[in-house]
Amino acid sequence: MVCDKCEKKLGRVITPDPWKTGARNTVESGGRKVGENKALTAKKGRYNPYTSKFYECKICRTKVHQVGSHYCQACAYKKGICAMCGKKILDTANYRQSST
């Protein structure tokens, strides 16, 4: 779960999505340009194992699989918070969730 503000920070994939509606990396949505070389233009979103820092989850202390996130997906879903910034997104008071 990621909030609208942090969704802009997520990386993009080089290949376009076959599911066009809702995709962020197609020409129609404005996420890609025609004839764009992603190897040259996507320096910011590219994965670099030497400079990327994988944090530990602030709740359960496991390694987070997404660069820039401070909470793992399981804890973010259980608490209803953004995995990157921790902002409350969803009210989980009436949800019946397991403790694992």
Automatic annotation (TrEMBL):
One of its GO terms (molecular function) is PDZ domain binding. Its main location: cytoplasm. The keyword Cytoplasm applies. Pfam families: Cript (PF10235). It comes from the Eukaryota. GO terms for biological process: cytoplasmic microtubule organization; mRNA processing; RNA splicing. Keywords: Cytoplasm, mRNA processing, mRNA splicing, Spliceosome. One of its GO terms (cellular component) is dendrite. It is found in: Cytoplasm. Belongs to the CRIPT family. PANTHER family: CYSTEINE-RICH PDZ-BINDING PROTEIN. This is Cysteine-rich PDZ-binding protein.
